[in-house]
């Protein structure tokens, strides 16, 4: 945990009041972002993202499975986050479990829509191989390697990058299987299908410190927060998910104000991420 | 299965006495006191060191030396088939213990009484030899944290397949069922601090295999020394000396 003296706390709060934070940023500015894709060779897709001193890795693995009986025309996606003790000694043993679960659930809510699978960032029906029988199960794993605040935004961006890096092998279903029989499949090792990731939303977390709110808080700033609102916003400006953390109550008018600010910021963030992702992909191709 | 073909090449194209490519990078985790990434071929681990600092659990405090702790964890995506493992299973507990004992041996714990040093290792990619890679990463991280040590412990494994001693086994060779000898040495004083083997091996072959592993350790020690030297030069340069 961050241990701060009274003077340091005043300094952080004073800086935010005057729109000049301890590291020289304005309230609505992000730290430098860098993305690398294809970092885990044994995964179908992976990405590492650094935002300042925060570093996370996301990997996507695809396995063939059976679709849920209630939704025979949709694949399944599961998101798990792990907080490595490397990032913070507090995460040792079972210490990181609570935060890991909180982050996993928040990501699932922000990126994958509701229980019905409607509103998911990627088209779940594209994961179907044979309707009602075979589908791809996507396992998305996030790992926090270095933590300096704003983990949710970083994980969201890492997953977006990993998904656009993901190639799912093309599958041929042998014809002739009828009824309840599980058809035979032939998985190609050469042809890969890419996802359309333009619909994957980004997550913008606004952290309220004192009377103002800031984006991309460091862990020192997060320790001073009264509450934080994470909004996931798609390229079209739609709100895809929302979660509020922290104990302090917020005025409803403040929340709607925060959402409109988040929407404005998300436009810049999406453009920034897209250019970083395409640069990373180009780098990877060159290697 | 043939692990060494008639031309004397292994499955991944190496010679029997060839090590996989080593790569190391110091300072991967900004908030840690010391950290390093160590790669041996496709095996990749991160180590971070926190400390020496105040003992968190007072009852564990030792009055005349530092308390060294270690935790080993594997990422969900580190292995070929994805599996979600519970934390603290027997394998990781055992490896944590091995790493802790090996590192404790070389840290000058008596210089830092009533303090605690935490070593965390995280496997990002597992392709055989994670134990060795973790020890090498931990050594670099401890050196980066500036913790006084007797020597730089390094570790390497060797095996024996198709009646040939093989250095630095990868996952396929490791799971072939042959013996796997993991050795850790203090290269300067030339002492063995870690020795583990499974399966059986005739005594005179064992000596050869172990000698090969020791040679591997020494090669890694040279590499680690170079990396540290380069890092120190960089630091010096940044300070404008």
From TrEMBL, chain A:
Sorted UniProt keywords: Cytoplasm, Exosome
Domain Exoribonuclease phosphorolytic: from-to ranges: 30-169, 199-263
Pfam families: RNase_PH (PF01138), RNase_PH_C (PF03725)
GO cellular component terms, semicolon-separated: cytoplasmic exosome (RNase complex); nuclear exosome (RNase complex); nucleolus
Keyword Acetylation part of the UniProt annotation: no
GO terms assigned for molecular function: mRNA 3'-UTR AU-rich region binding
UniProt similarity note: Belongs to the RNase PH family.
Protein name: Ribosomal RNA-processing protein 42
Organism: Populus euphratica (Euphrates poplar)
TrEMBL record, chain B:
Residues of the Exoribonuclease phosphorolytic domain: 18-148, 151-216
Localisation per UniProt entry: Cytoplasm; Nucleus, Nucleolus
GO terms for MF: RNA binding
Pfam families documented for this protein: RNase_PH, RNase_PH_C
Location, primary (coarse class): cytoplasm
An annotated GO BP: U4 snRNA 3'-end processing
GO cellular component: cytoplasmic exosome (RNase complex); nuclear exosome (RNase complex); nucleolus
Alphabetic keyword roster: Cytoplasm, Exosome
SUPFAM superfamilies: Ribonuclease PH domain 2-like, Ribosomal protein S5 domain 2-like
UniProt superkingdom: Eukaryota
Family the UniProt entry places it in: Belongs to the RNase PH family.
Record protein name field: Exosome complex component RRP41 isoform X1
Lineage: Eukaryota, Viridiplantae, Streptophyta, Embryophyta, Tracheophyta
Gene: LOC105134750
């Amino acid at each position: 945990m961050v241990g701060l003296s009274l003077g340091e706390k005043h300094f952080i709060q004073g800086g935010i009041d005057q729109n000049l934070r301890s590291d020289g940023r304005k309230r609505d500015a992000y730290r430098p972002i860098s993305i690398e894709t294809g970092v885990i060779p044994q995964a179908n897709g992976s990405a590492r993202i650094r935002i300042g001193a925060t570093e996370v890795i996301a990997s996507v693995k695809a396995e063939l499975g059976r679709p849920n009986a209630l939704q025979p025309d949709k694949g399944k996606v599961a998101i798990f986050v792990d907080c490595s003790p490397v990032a913070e000694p507090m995460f040792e043993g079972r210490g990181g479990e609570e935060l890991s679960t909180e982050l996993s659930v928040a990501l699932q809510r922000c990126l994958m829509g509701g229980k019905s699978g409607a509103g998911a960032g990627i088209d779940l029906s594209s994961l179907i191989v044979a309707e009602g029988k075979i589908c791809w199960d996507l396992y998305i794993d996030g790992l926090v390697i270095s933590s300096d605040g704003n983990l949710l935004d970083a994980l969201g961006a890492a997953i977006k990058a990993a998904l656009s890096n993901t190639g799912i092998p093309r599958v041929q279903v042998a014809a002739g299987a009828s009824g309840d029989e599980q058809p035979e499949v032939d998985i190609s090792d050469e042809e890969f299908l890419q996802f359309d990731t333009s619909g994957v939303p980004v997550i913008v977390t606004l952290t309220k410190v004192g009377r103002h709110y800031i984006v991309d808080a460091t862990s020192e700033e997060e320790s001073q927060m009264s509450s934080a609102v994470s909004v996931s916003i798609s390229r079209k400006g739609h709100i895809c998910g929302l979660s509020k953390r922290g104990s302090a109550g917020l005025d409803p008018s403040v929340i709607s104000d925060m959402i409109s600010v988040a929407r404005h910021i998300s436009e810049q963030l999406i453009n920034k991420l897209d250019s970083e992702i395409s640069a990373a992909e180009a780098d990877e191709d060159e290697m | 299965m043939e692990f060494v073909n008639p031309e004397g090449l292994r499955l991944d194209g190496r010679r029997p006495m060839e090590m996989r490519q080593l790569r190391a990078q110091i300072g991967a985790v900004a908030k840690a006191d010391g950290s390093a990434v160590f790669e041996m071929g496709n095996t990749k681990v991160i180590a971070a060191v926190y400390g020496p600092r105040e003992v968190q659990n007072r009852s564990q405090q030792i009055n005349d030396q530092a308390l060294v702790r270690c935790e080993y964890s594997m990422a969900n995506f580190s292995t070929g088939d994805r599996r979600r493992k519970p934390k603290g299973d027997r394998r990781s507990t055992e490896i944590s213990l091995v790493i802790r004992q090996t590192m404790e041996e070389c840290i000058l714990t008596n210089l830092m009484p009533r303090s605690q040093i935490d070593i965390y290792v995280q496997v990002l990619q597992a392709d055989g030899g994670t134990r060795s890679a973790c020890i090498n990463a931990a050594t670099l991280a401890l050196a980066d944290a500036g913790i006084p040590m007797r020597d730089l412990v390094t570790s390497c494994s060797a095996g024996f397949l198709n009646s040939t001693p093989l250095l630095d086994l990868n996952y396929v060779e490791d799971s072939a069922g042959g013996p796997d000898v993991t050795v850790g040495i203090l290269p300067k004083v030339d002492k063995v601090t870690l020795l583990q083997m499974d399966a059986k091996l005739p005594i005179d072959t064992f000596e050869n295999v172990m000698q090969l592993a020791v040679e591997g350790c020494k090669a890694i020690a040279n590499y680690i020394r170079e990396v540290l030297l380069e890092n120190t030069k960089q630091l010096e340069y940044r300070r404008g000396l």
